[in-house]
Amino acid sequence: MKPAFLASLLAASVLAASPAAAAGLTIAVVAPGEGPLAILGRQVRDGARFAAGATGDTVVEIAEACDETDGDGIARQILAANASAAVGFLCTEGLAAALPALAEANVPAVTLSVRSGILMEDALKKGWPLFRLAPGPKAEADKAVEVITRDWKSESFALIDDGTIHARELVEAVRLALEEVGMKPAFVDTFRPAQEQQLTLVRRLAKTGVTHVFVGGDRTDVAVIARDAKAEKKPLALLGGEALVGADPVVPMTDGVEAVALPDYQSLPEGEPVARAMAEKDIVAEGYVLPAHAAVTALAAAAAEGGDIAARLADGRFTTAIGTVAFGADHELRENPYRLLVWRAGAFVPVETAAESD
């Protein structure tokens, strides 16, 4: 991928230029149009349309029902539109049903949301052209292990979870990976979630002598633990997963709490100018807006190289509004999209951004 082309492509997107005169790709955008996921579908369409408007590509919108009615109808619509690629796919049902027909027509599909490990295994085994712009199923645990092995080598630490399936599996994956490199937690436990206070848990943690705690739990529980640890004057360095980024208007988060999660792309250097240009068109660059924009940008760049789009997508590195996008042999993002974030002044921000402002 030539840097000059990438720079000009992203610049065109930032400026939201009018469509190019020459005909470009036809890209199917598959996303919910109704129901509880409609707002997310709108984000996907907004981002894809904005990018396509700059690159001169054509977007064909295809509704995703996200239930058992998503049979092979999605694939039929994509192929009837003569689309060169498809992006979106917020739900597993339609993506799984569409992939065999898309593979036969050599139409790559880029999912922004589906994290199923089994589906990707099937795609690789059967040669389906599926690419995942969302994190893979192991990415959250992998990033947590990376952070803990780097930052907590000399610390006494605990691993705790709230008993839910995802939290328990996350903490267990982290524990096993850490023990493989000789890092054993001083304390492992399951706590009772959704409590107004967690003083008993904080005191138990303090009694073990741990100073650092990885928490498999939601934002409210971690906020309560951080608040109570501060009140007890028992300083604990707390690290959680993606669940910490959820909204919570009730319990304020304590500065310094860290989370392994996806960043707010519009606040990053790559995303900020695109978000600003979108704001001029009354588009809020939240949720799936910038990932959808990135998917279309990458596809346009891959197509510009000529030849098979799926092959170019698999081999290339693409400058986008969410950073450099490149896929590995497993069609997952080559670089883990999770970042280490820290709570500062009312928001989770990348730790490097917080360090610059200190």
Question: Which key phrases capture this entry?
Answer:
358 residues, alpha/beta, Rossmann fold, 13 helices
Structural class: alpha/beta
Order of helices and strands: HEHEHEHEHEHEHEHEHEEHHHEEEEH
Helix content: 40-55%
Q: CATH topology of the largest domain, which one?
A: Rossmann fold
Q: Hey, roughly how much beta strand do the residues contain?
A: 15-25%
CATH architecture verdict of the largest domain: 3-Layer(aba) Sandwich
Give the CATH superfamily of the largest domain: Response regulator
Widest sheet, order of strands: 7-6-8-9-10-13-14
Helix tally equals 13
Shape: elongated
Radius of gyration: 22 Å
Strand tally is 14
Uncertain runs? 1-22
The biggest beta sheet reads: 7 strands, mixed
CATH secondary-structure class of the largest domain: Alpha Beta
Determine the mean pLDDT.
92
Straight-line distance between termini: 37 Å
Number of domains: 2
Layout: helices, strands, pairs:
Layout (H helix, E strand, L loop, with lengths): L2 H13 L10 E6 L6 H18 L2 E6 L9 H8 L4 E4 L3 H13 L4 E3 L5 H10 L3 E3 L6 H13 L5 E5 L3 H16 L6 E4 L8 H10 L3 E5 L2 H13 L5 E4 L17 E4 L10 H8 L9 H16 L4 H7 L1 E4 L2 E4 L12 E6 L2 E4 H7 L1
Parallel strand pairs: 1-2, 1-3, 3-4, 4-5, 6-7, 6-8, 8-9, 9-10
Antiparallel strand pairs: 10-13, 11-12, 13-14
Helix pairs in contact: 1-2, 2-11, 3-4, 6-7, 11-12
